[in-house]
Amino acid sequence: MKKVVLFKSTSEDYQNAFSDSNYEPIFVEPLQFVFINLQGLSEKLTKNDYDGIILSSPRAIEAVSKCWSPSKYVAWNSKRVYTVGEVSCQKIKHMLGLDALGGTTGNAENLANLIASENPESTRFLFPCGNLRSEILPNVLGAAKMTVEPLTVYETKENEHLRERLIDLNENVNPCCMVFFSPSGCEYIYRQLQTFSNNLSLLPHFAIGNSTAHKIENLGVEIAGVAAKPKPECVIESVVEYFRTFEACG
Length: 250
Hints:
The chain has ten helices and ten strands. It has 250 residues and is of the alpha/beta class.
């Protein structure tokens, strides 16, 4: 069974999707997160200053959940909640009890265009985010004359065990390819790969979406495939299709 490195936290959905296609997933989390400004977030959620909230990452959802109280924030039941992807919609429903929009958008640019098309000018959104956030959402919505108020609620850092995990992958695992799940993860991984001789850099590289793919290309590495949507079945489909084509050509 071929082994595939997934640079993300362990996931049962990804485990099942890859196992069902006769691949063994090896999970390596390149990032670690520190939550900050939760008191400030709680205060902003209490105020009735916003028409909606944008939760574009799993960590932003988790940050809100840490100070969430359905009875305290009942006003949010009637406000618009936006996110990227079906998994995040489910997470918001499970952790916050709110129905979210944007499940089919797949990336920040599509989400921004959806929000711009569904809301009038002067709409105000709270945007809990990380310290490495993309400016796509604020820029697109700002151009549409909407107000997006970012609040940094978590910091993204390199996993302190990343280098030793990469060395172990290189020496003991012999994977057939690697899948990257975030631009910041790509940066930390390649920073460490430059510190020791390895074969990992030569493996086919796959990306969860376009932003991550662009980051990999900016590092001077060719992309083998990009998932059509940020879903396990789409990721494994891109991997299977690549090796099917590769073997046919070989």
